[in-house]
Fold this protein.
Amino acid sequence: MRDVAVIGIGMNKWGELWDKSLRDIFTEAALKAIDDGGVDHIDSMYIGNMSSGLFVGQEHLASLLSDYLGQGPIPATRIESACCSGGAAFRSAFIDVASGMNDIVLAGGVEKMNDIGGDGATFALATAADQEYEVYHGVTFPGLYAMMARAHMERYGTTRKQLAEVAVKNHENGSKNPLAQFPFKTTVEGVINSPMVADPLTLMDCSPITDGAAAVILCPADMVKDYKNHPAVKIIGSGHATDTIALSTRDDLTYLKATEIAGQKALKMAGKRLSDIDLCEVHDCFTIAEIIVLESLGFFERGKAAAATEAGETRIGGKIPINTSGGLKSKGHPVGATGIAQIYEIVNQLRGGAGERQVKGAKVGMAQNMGGSGGSTLVHILEVM
Amino acid sequence: MFPARYWREIPQRYRLEANKCKKCGYIGFPPRLVCPKCGGREFEPIKLKSEGKLLTYTIIRVPPSGFKDQTPYAIGIVELDDGAKIMAQLVDVNLEDIKTGDKYHIEFRKVQSDGHSGILAYGYKFVPVR
Ligand SMILES: [Zn+2]
């Protein structure tokens, strides 16, 4: 296997992009990545996208996007793994370059979620859960994570206030990210007193509905001398694991087994320990998700991540800065693009380009991207070269 | 909902038909062809127990279409007395009285209406054991 580097990153402002089409949102981000990397062509591309068919009525997406990117006949493949479609596309691009099959490969992600309206988006997102044995009975995604939250609170004493602290911290970080959909700050009271969606989770515990895209350019590490726009960042670890998509059949409702396994695989491949990680982007689709992910990755013992968050250990400047980008909560969550945007943030941080939210001296970063209620997870580790 | 998709699940939704791994005892609901615990492929048909205890729940206040007339409603995961864990609505109980660990039993009810001219969808719901 060849060593692989990320040499270009591109992302646009996320939000409700009514005047832009899916193809334009993607192409803008992809062109930024191509220009940032200083490449004059790409050899293949992988697009993370959960459900363009349901959101905008368009399948056969990868060919459409390679055409609009002006890359005509290159091999282009859409990758679907619910909300971690982006992370899975990144891994596919990594494998493509590492194998020697292709040299300059684009990994992108895109989702256009607002066109279809609230009920339609709820339906499309719910297809990531078990249609016949969960969704049939009226559960929603906030409902699934709410059940995990209640189980975690009852087992470990995690409090309502501690969950709110996740949103407060991520909005604090997001307020320093000009590309974030909701770059405002919030308070514990603001989170707890927002409308209840699925007890105990309120609207401000939930990530939003977002239109957005992101893209990155990969190449063999021994080719980075040809592309000197920025410090190159090497992909040193990649882990991927699955679990049941039905929450009810899991052995433990307070833990994410696929996240643990993917994290361990990525660390082993990288030859690193958690103590080597300088910052981590995690999949905070709901506040409780960040807590359980931090425990499943092993940054904190089981039942301890909520108190650690309340104590400020996951802030920038804390023990391990988590979601410096603002996370899904503040930055937005265009599901297929999220995993690529996490890589964008890590590379930007490792280059030292994150401005007001820069983690000083960051050398090694991790990204954890998760599908559904935890039925799939990707973990990647990157290191500045 | 397409009628065939609904009809195929009737043995589970109406009659709780499951299967049990002959090697390790794992219960598949819906019935499985391969045991996810031991890889076994031999199963015996069983019917799920109709009583169990509540593991966790939530109250849905922003519902999917098809459930708006029932909102707010509770939905939870119950571990049945045979060890199978299934998700369904909790009904005939005050929302503020729901507690994890309480005993529930399964009753057959209407679950959702598929629009004005669509099918009425039935299945199991949990009712407190008094
Ligand atoms: Zn078995």
The mean pLDDT of chain A is 97.
